[in-house]
Amino acid sequence: MKYIHTLALLFFVFQSCKDSLPTNRNVSSAKISAEKTTKTPHDFMFMQRAYPSGELKPNAIKDAAAWKRNELSKRNSLSEVWEFVGPVNTGGRITDIEIPVNDSNTYYVGAASGGIFKTINAGVTFNPIFDDQDMLSIGDIEISKTNPNTLWVGTGEVNAGGGSLTYDGDGIYKSENGGLSWESKGLPNVGSIGKILIHPSNEDIIFVGAMGPLFKNDENRGVYKTIDGGVTWEKVFQYSNRAGVIDMAIHPTDGNIVYAAFWQRERTTENRIYGGADSGLWRSQDGGTTWSLMTNGLPTIATQKGRISIDISQSNPNVLYARYANAAGGIQGVYRTQDGGDSWQTMNSSALTDVGFHWWFRGIFVDPENENIIYNVDFEVQKSIDGGQTWSDVFSIAHVDQHAMAFTTQGASTILLGNDGGLYTSANEGASSSKIETLPITQFYRVHVDAQNDDKIYVGSQDNSTVRTTTSGTNDWSTIFGGDGFQPLVDPTNTNVIYALSQNGNLGKSINNGASFNGALNGIPNIDRNNWDTPITFDPADSQTLYYGTNKLYKTTNAAGSWTAISPDLTNGPSSGNLTFGTIISISISPLNSEVIYVGTDDGNVWVTQDAGSNWLNISSTLPNRWVTKVLADRENANGVYVTFSGYRFGENEGHVYQSSDFGANWNNISTGIPDIPINDIIKDINDILYVGTDIGVIASGDNGQTWVPLAANLPSVPVTDMHIHEVSQYLYIGTYGRSIYKINLSNDILAFSENEAENTLIVSPNPANDYITLTLGKSIGSKNEIQLHDALGRLVASEILNFGNSNQATLNLSQYPTGVYFLSVATEGKTITKKLIKN
Please, what are the domains in the chain? Predict the structure, then answer.
């Protein structure tokens, strides 16, 4: 939950777009009124990657992930593992929840950008089960009714929020062993998946609702069907290339009766349309061969039709409910049919909370045991026990912005709820609820670690504020600053002084260890342009001096007491259209000379001043015209600087990482070997190793960019948005967009390998394994060695000393560990050898 510390911040949050909404649960009428006027989503992630063409590169993620797998496969051994830092109690956006029949302890949870998590103990612990796939954005999950280990997954989030949405899905996947392994089942080009339905009497027949890509109209939208278990697919219905399938329902005993909700959704760099004539509810009564538009009692006017949800009663399949948003995003109405869709009755929707952006929420769910009990899973959750005639609020403590609901087989009274803030459970139909605080799926923008105390970790998150831990624990993170969170900073000389940012540059300062914050923008005019992720940084030589970027660079010498502009407008000026550019996005002050300052902008400019801002020089004329994600003054060369870019080459001979040794007069492309993938950050350690955070993880170079390798194997292909080195402990911390935070030990050269790599190998047999494995080292290194076993998240689950003896072999008992993916490490001669292990 978010707590707003000042009236100024509260007002600021009210005026922000959907993705910036506060998540404290006490929703006032003033807040709702303000939210109604702020329906335009922010496209920050898309803007970074699509500037200036307005397009994303098809298959970029897939090609880059394939490169990563290939590079990792070349090595007989790996070094350190990423250690999970947390949080698990903050949560993040959930897109689907599924529970197997007759198993109330097993849940599958799909995340917006974090993959799929599985629990077998009702949420006490979760483990990721989709990490080997290229795309971790989940649209829908479906479980077989006859075999609970058979899962179908559709990738690509269908919510049209913007801020977190960049990449569409890459099709359909199937697992026959509860998620331990997966097989691609096609449809890689259909964008995001709104729904998967399994035929009730023939599980080789599957229906898929394709919502299509977010940022273009597309012929691949519509309803798809397979009759051979996904070997082949047929598009059985498409209404138009601007309307996709956002939701579907199937008769629980007659698989010929299928319903599809089409949503007209168009998004470009110039406009956004979230409804219209092509939205509507369709029905097929012959297994998808023919379809008819249901209009009897339903909206028919174009402006009345936006996002639609539909659900069918399992106890009486003649009863279905639909929730319509209108084309402007307001609640249009709730409808009920008692004859399978021949006619519909308007129910009461006047009591539903209307916040004006209902294209973001899931909609209606029907109690599986009672056709008259329904839930409107919306901004809040509201419940009706009389078929939609009256409504009451439930799940009163839950985070706002609802996307998923599931009923356990303990009875319909036990409900799971998924929203922008994570997973909630209720044992009494929503009358009371609690948060399940074990999911590491937070989407982070920025990370910072207190220089004086590495137990104190601060991060800025999408939808979940600026949060921190003061113990380095994974489950005790708390909110200190509201709104969407961005760059936090802690004074390196005073742990009580904290700076925090929310969206569009709202800056607060605390002098009491985060107990309270005051506004800290004195001297920065409102007419300046701010980036969604406004940058702020310390002068490395003086913690009282900070820099803050709008379209100009501002400086304070009194710890944000007042600010003064030290530059003119360093951008190309304001832009027009749905997407706006023209702001500073990155600032770097040389740690060797405080008068040398570099600035990067979101419209492709890089600037330098060598006299503390008296004179500025644009040094980007020979650099790519793409969104600058990071400028980094070299920590060893006073004349050196690095620059990274988002976006794609599109066939041009341009890089993503550049280096200069003469203040930007000349540039070297040092990204040879890096796949064509957006780079989000760059950092350099004391061993002269460069690290870049990319959309598929961290890539490192020990030779100043001549060669690059993916760093460690246990981090999935998740975007790494920010990196921070804690210099005292020599740990690299990374913030991911969907999988919370990790760290890795840099105290040893983690890229160092023996010239004879065969001597440093570790063989694990069998793999996959059941109860026992044999470990064989490639070199005699003594009789006893420490082994560590980490789970798929990098959490340490076992550490013990094994006797390898003269044979260099040892046996490890795995019988006490549950099925899943692990990483087994052996320390040898100051190095660490790591192998991936699958436990059956």
Answer: 91-360+385-392 (2.130.10.10), 444-745 (2.130.10.10), 758-839 (2.60.40.1930)
